[in-house]
Amino acid sequence: MFYLSKIEHTLRLPPHLLNLPINQAIKGELEGLFLDKVIADLGLCISIYDIHSIDGGFITPGDGASTYTVMFRMIMFRPFVGEVIAAKLKESDREGLKLSLGFFDDIHVPEHLLPMPKQFEPESGNSNQGRWIWEFNGDNYPIDAVDEIRFRVHHVTYPSLPVEQEKASKPFAPMIVIGSLDADGLGPISWWV
Amino acid sequence: MKIVKANDGVLTNFEVLNFLRSRGAGKDLTRVIAPIAPSEFKVYDYLEQTAACSQTRESIISFVGKSKQYKLAEAEILNLINIRPSSVVEIDPIVEECDKRMGEGVEELVEMVLQVLPTPPSQMQSDDQVEFNKDDVREGQEVEAS
Q1: B73 and B116 co-located in one domain
Q2: Do residue B96 and residue B61 come from a single domain?
Q3: B31-44: per-residue pLDDT in tens?
Q4: Domain RNA polymerase Rpb4/RPC9 core: where (chain B) (predicted)?
Q5: Is there a contact between A86 and B92 if contact means CB atoms under 8 Å apart?
Q6: Which one of B11, B89, B98 would you mutate to disrupt binding with A, by most A Cβ within 10 Å of its Cβ?
Q7: Is A142 exposed, middle or buried (0-12, 13-18, 19+ CB in 10 A)?
Q8: Which helix (H) or strand (E) holds A42?
C-alpha cells in the first residue's frame, strides 16, 4: 500500500522563515507543498520520510528569498494491482459501490466486479441509491455499512486535469482506485468469519 | 520537481504506523501539539484499526523468515502481513492459485500466521465479549440460587 519515493525539488524559502533551523523550515515548506496531494503515477503523498541533502541557498538578485535544491524521500500511498485492502462503505448505488479509507475516498467497485449472482435493492423513495445483495446457495448476503469490506485492487487510474468544470459536477478526483469483490474471502468480513 | 526514484522501497502498514508514532501521533490527544498534519492523522486513524496496530518489528522479521519455505511472492507476503488472515478462506484472494501451489500447506500457513503475527484488537475484543457474557450468566444463576 505504501511506497517510498525519492524526489528532488527546487524550493524557494520565503524570508519570514529564515529564523528557523534550516531542516525544520524546509520540511515545513515541503509538507505544505506536497502533503495530501496526488502525483501522477506515484500516488497520494502521505508524509515526508527523510531529507537526504539540501543544496544551494543562493539568493537571486531582486528576490528576498533563498532557493534550495532538496533531495528527499516521501511515503506515497499507491496500491498495487492484486492487493487486498479493508475499507468502509461510503455509498451504494446502481453503478456500484464507493468505498473509503478515511484518508482516501475515491475507491469504486463497479457493478460488473461484484460477486455474481447479485441483485440490487433500491431504497424506498430514491431509486438510484440502494444496497446490493449477493445470492449464494439460496441465502441472501447484503452489502451493508456495518463492518469493513475487503476488496482486491483491479487497477489504478490517474485521470488528467479537466480544462473546464461545470459547477454542479462532482469535484475532480485525480486518482481513482477500481476494486473488485469477485473472489472468495472478499466483501464484508462478516460473510466469511 | 524531478522524480529521482519512483520506487525506493515498499513499506508495510506497520512501518508507516511506527513512523507516525515516532513523531508523536499516539501520545497527543488534542492533536494540535504534535508536529503532524491533519491528513497524516487520518492515515494514523485508519492504520490503528487494522492488524498493524499490535505488530512488532521482530514478529514481522520472523514471519518473513518462516514464510520462505512456502515460496510466496513478495506482494503476497506483504498482503499477509497487512491483512493477517485468520482462516483458509481469507488466504484465497491473497495467494493466487492457492490450491495448486500449496494444497495441504494452506492450513499450515494459517497456523503460522496466527502464531507469529499478534492478534489485532478487533479480533481480541470479540473473544473478550464472549467471555464477559459467560461471566454474567454465571453471576445471574448464583443470585437466583441464594
Answers
A1: yes
A2: yes
A3: 778 888 888 888 88
A4: 1-120
A5: no
A6: B11
A7: middle
A8: none
* CATH code of the domain in which B119 resides: 1.20.1250.40
- Do B46 and B63 have their domain in common? no
Distance of CA B85 to the CA centre of its chain: 9
Cross-strand bridge partners of residue A179 = A153
B139 inside domain: no
Distances (CA, A) of B27 to B23, B35, B36: 9, 12, 12
Residues of B in contact with A7 (CB under 8 A): 1-4
Residue B83 lies in a domain: yes
Domain count along chain B = 2
Average pLDDT over residues A187-191: 80
Burial (Cβ within 10 Å: 0-12, 13-18, ≥19) of residue A65 = middle
With beta carbons under 8 A apart, name residues in chain A contacting B43.
46-47, 77, 102-103
Share of chain A above pLDDT 90, in %: 17
Residue A162 burial by CB count (10 A; 0-12/13-18/19+): exposed, middle or buried?
Answer: exposed
Band (A127; pLDDT cuts 50, 70, 90)? low
* B contacts of A102 (beta carbons < 8 Å): 42-43, 45-46
Let me know whether B45 and B62 are in one domain.
no
ipTM exceeding cut-off 0.85 for this assembly: no
Q: Give the 3-state secondary structure of residue A99.
A: strand
Residue B79 and residue B90 in one domain: yes
